Amino acid sequence: MAPSTGAVRPARSLVIFGLIVAALYALVFFTGDKSPTPKLGIDLQGGTRVTLTARTPDGSKPSQDSLRRAQEIIETRVNGLGVSGSEVVIDGDNLVITVPGDDSSQARTLGQTARLYIRPVQSSAVSSNAQAQAPKAETPAPAPAPQNRPFPAQEPGTPAPPTETPAPPADQGAATSDDQAAAEIAEAKKTRQSTDPAVQQQAMATLDCNASDPLQGNDDPALPLVACSTDGTTVYLLGPSIIDGQEIADASSAFNSQQSRNEVSLTFKSSGSTTWAQFTAANIGKQAAFTLDSKVVSAPVVQGATPAGSATSITGDFTSASAKELANTLKYGSLPLSFQASEAETVSATLGLASLQAGLIAGAIGLALVLLYCLIYYRMLGVLTALSLVLSGVMVYAIMVLLGRYIGFTLDLAGIAGLIIGIGMTADSFVVYFERIKDEIREGRSFRSAVPRGWARARRTILSGNAVSFIAAAVLYVLAVGQVRGFAFTLGLTTILDVVVVFLVTHPLVHLASKSDFWSKPSINGLGAVQQVARERKTAASARTSVGAQAKEA
């Protein structure tokens, strides 16, 4: 005999589900960007995806801290492409870079490891971008002013050079983007990494710290460097690198209670520690610059010699957050891992739109077939199935929107496949429930009494089946990489929502239907054939009982 199900409160269950859906859509329409559309993957909106696999020198598993720092550095490079909607996502031991658009040649260069160097500061000056432009604007102004004569005025009329200046862009436009980048880097090295003091001073005077830096991460550590600070307020002339960032063993931030200031403490590896001890002993009172991707992150003053093997403290006008950020930069700026050769995958926007339409059509066809089957086989109980599936879809949609908004989850084709399979799994739970009800009716019970008993037997099967599916999805999510994880995620999500819908929607609706005279009619609920079998079994059992009784009397 099936166990007792206890008191059933279908109205309460339906109200709880309604409150959950209302809360989800309140978050959709009244929080974040308030956009009611899910975040689509690259295969649906078009663009370029690059997957980089991180590897440490010793082959060990990279730490999540180093991956997050690598994510921040590469995000800066992605944003440097000048496109919106770019993202860098940590996927296990990989970094997945998504860039809208179809220019994969730029996306392929994003995996270059950022390099950090420590250089001695030879001189520094306040950045004067606006001042450097002002003399250029004033220089032509005095020239035409005194020349009120018509004859000299014809000399400025020789703006043939200005008209010829568009010619170089035409030539440059014929070159590939790689050639242009190489030319810009070479040109920047001629001025900013020159060993000629005159050229160095000219570079300091003309360097625009607000413009994009073609030398970013491509400077030669064996040559001097003219570089800007990260905030763009100071220009430095730096000597050749004395320590590579790979020599930094650790860095941390802390508050010095005695000095009432935030400090950054760092330690070097053996060779770097020896070099740093020699440098600090010989350069007390001078500055040492920490450069990351050709930008000066910090330029502290050497206040005393640092013995080999001991930690070095960097002081400055740090807040707790800025000190922690600098420590992370020094610790992970020169990443303690490398990346496998990247492979870019490009999907056009047209193909992405076609894929989205095909996925939606496939989902609609699958849903329609499930509903058609339920209506034919279960009659009006199929209407309850349809209502449950629609409400499940409403909840799934809201969750997809919120996941994309707050954790960056993107819905791709693999994810849509997981959702479609979830439709079948949800319908499977309905089938299990309805078949258990039919089993109870075959035993001679009425529709009203069969529902609670059938539910007591079906819910264990439903929970067991969904538990197996969820475990499979979880294992697939942990072991898989890339789009397969999206499939596993949506499959696991729909598995959980299947349980929620069956417990809070389907069972309460069927329970209410069992108490309705209209829904209890065999012609309506489609259970007439089953009830006929129950009557035949009952008649046969009665006949066998009568025959047995007569045989005993005889």
Automatic annotation (TrEMBL):
A Pfam family the protein falls into: SecD_1st
Subunit architecture: Forms a complex with SecF. Part of the essential Sec protein translocation apparatus which comprises SecA, SecYEG and auxiliary proteins SecDF. Other proteins may also be involved.
Renumbered residue ranges of the record's region Disordered: 127-201
Subcellular localization, as worded in the UniProt entry: Cell membrane
Gene3D superfamilies tied to this protein: 3.30.1360.200, 3.30.70.3400, Multidrug efflux transporter AcrB transmembrane domain
InterPro entries per UniProt: SecD (IPR005791), SecD/SecF_arch_bac (IPR022813), SecD/SecF_CS (IPR022646), SecD_1st (IPR048631), SecD_SecF_C (IPR048634), SecD_SecF_C_bact (IPR055344), SecDF_P1_head (IPR054384)
Domain Protein translocase subunit SecDF P1 as annotated: residue spans: 68-122
UniProt keyword annotation of Transport present: yes
Annotated family: Belongs to the SecD/SecF family. SecD subfamily.
Protein name: Protein translocase subunit SecD
Keyword Flavoprotein carried by entry: no
Domain of life: Bacteria
Feature: compositional bias, Low complexity: 127-140
Name of the gene this protein is made from: secD
Function in brief: Part of the Sec protein translocase complex. Interacts with the SecYEG preprotein conducting channel. SecDF uses the proton motive force (PMF) to complete protein translocation after the ATP-dependent function of SecA.
Record's bilayer topology term: Multi-pass membrane protein
Ranges of biased composition (kind: Pro residues): 158-169
Main location: membrane
Keyword tags: Cell membrane, Membrane, Protein transport, Translocation, Transmembrane, Transmembrane helix, Transport
Ranges of residues in domain Protein export membrane protein SecD/SecF C-terminal: 338-512
